[in-house]
Amino acid sequence: MPIATRVGTLQSQSFVVEQIMRGTARYVDLQSQITTGEKTQRFDGMPDDTAQTINLANSEAMLDQYIKSGNVTNSRLSGMSNSVATLLDVATKFRAQLLQAMTAEQADDGRIDVVADGALQEIKGALNADLGGVYLFGGTRNDTPPVDLSDPIANSNGTYYSGAAELMQARIDGNTLLRMGTTADRQGFKDLIASVQRVSSGSASLSELETALDDLNTALDDLTQLQAELGHQMKVVESASARNDATKATVETQLGSLRDVDIAAAMVQLTQRQTILQASYAVISRSSDLTLMNYLR
User: Fold this and answer.
1) Which of 27, 80, 91, 287 is positioned for an S-S bond with 181, CB 3.0–4.6 A?
2) Residue 99 lies in a domain
3) What is the greatest pairwise CA distance in the chain?
4) Are 238 and 267 part of one and the same domain?
């Protein structure tokens, strides 16, 4: 009987120690949850929800990429739109000057060729616009200025462009790969440059001025169309960004229900665990008071 009692006591102590170890681990885990606000720092800590959590986390990361891409794309399209607005302003003012030159004698200080030289510089600046070192009208070759208007012959025949033919592209959501804007090789830009260059020589005849006006009118029509196209693309990006933001909010809510801790409930559990551990320590402490002589009796 004494031996049976001793064996039972040892078994009881082992059981209590095991419970203490488990309780301590759970206590530490609850403390960590309260500190971090999350149920676990590892996916394997939530085995029942691991697959769903991983899928949602991947979706969240992908949405972040789409949102970032949308922001960059919108900025570039906005930069292109600003440049086109500048070109429309240059073309409109130059057209007024050109009409005046065709209908009245000009003094030397109002020579249309001087106006044309200034317009060429403004056009060059607008078409060589960049955003963070990315040249907006160079297509996929966007690390160098795409337009050089120093050669009158190249300006006249439209061979001033050194960029790529392919447009920049951006993935703005799971279903949309947007081809962005246009290149400086667009026909409307060629017409504008050719028109201004024709007048820049300073020796244009009336017939040449009329040809320049025709090219300019064609360019204005195309620039107006381009402005509308860019506006439409910006709306496409804005709509995609709004969908991405809404989807991300839903994903974050779902992830939160899986990962985030109810702090108030966790505090209650922590208090309960602390009480249980204190009781377990008391039990093991009383058992440890038995001396070797108690077992030998």
Assistant:
1) 80
2) yes
3) 132
4) no
Give the angle subtended at the CA of 125 by the CAs of 122 and 128, to the nearest 5°. Answer: 150
The rounded distance, in Å, linking the Cα atoms of 76 and 234 is: 10
Chain-centroid distance of CA 115 in Å reads 41
Q: Are 174 and 266 part of one and the same domain?
A: no
> What is the predicted pLDDT for the residue at 292?
42
| Number of domains, the chain | 2
Q: In this structure, is residue 43 part of a structural domain?
A: no
Evaluate whether residue 46 is within a structural domain: no
pLDDT confidence of residue 64? 96
State the pLDDT at residue 14.
64
Both 196 and 216 in one domain: the answer is yes
pLDDT number for residue 107: 43
Residue 183 three-state SS: coil
Using alpha carbons only, give the angle 197, 198, 199 rounded to the nearest 5 degrees: 90
Examine the domain organization and report whether 276 and 186 are in the same domain. Answer: no
Full domain range(s) for residue 138: 51-254
* Regions in the chain scoring below 50 on pLDDT: 1-5, 43, 106-109, 290-293, 295-297
Q: Are residue 235 and residue 284 in the same domain, yes or no?
A: no
Domain membership flag for residue 69: yes
Rounded Cα distance between 68 and 145, Å, is 25
Q: Are 20 and 281 in contact (CB under 8 A)?
A: yes
**Cβ atoms within 10 Å, residue 143:** 11
Identify the pLDDT of residue 109.
43
Structure tokens at 102: 């065709």
Task: Name the one residue in this structure whose structure tokens are 């906005």.
Answer: 78
